[in-house]
Amino acid sequence: MRIVIVGGGTGGHLYPGIAVAHELQRFDPYAVITFIGSKATGERETVLREGFAFSGITASGFTRRKATEQMRSVAHLVRGIVQSLSLLRKIRPSVVLGLGSYVSGPVVLTARALRIPCVIQEQNLLPGLTNRILGRIANRVAVSFEDSVSYFAAKSLL
Asked: If DSSP codes are grouped into helix, strand and coil, which group holds residue 156?
């Protein structure tokens, strides 16, 4: 089984994904797990130290400030989708697990367009914007708190 885990930027997204990756390896020692994260953050070293492959894409959060920053965010989204398309075609995962954060957006959107099953993991009580949006298109959503359930469609909850 080939699995892509996407998210990061902060330890709050990355470390739960690493914990899931270790459990998946315990369940299936032959699973090939690749993390996709932002090229601009330092998660590469953490993921590699944990023994997993890492690929970076261009991604940034959306801002509501200056028009030039908004245009840069849109350009990063488009570039991230193109990079995600290339990576997902190369990796050919059985499933994509989105952890939240802005880097999850282009990868999960691309995976769904390629008809790759997607799961969103929401480890916070209040879901972030990316997971609230991606929860609408993901095949399944895993939550940590009962109070998070109301943010997602009942049909998709694990």
From this structure: helix
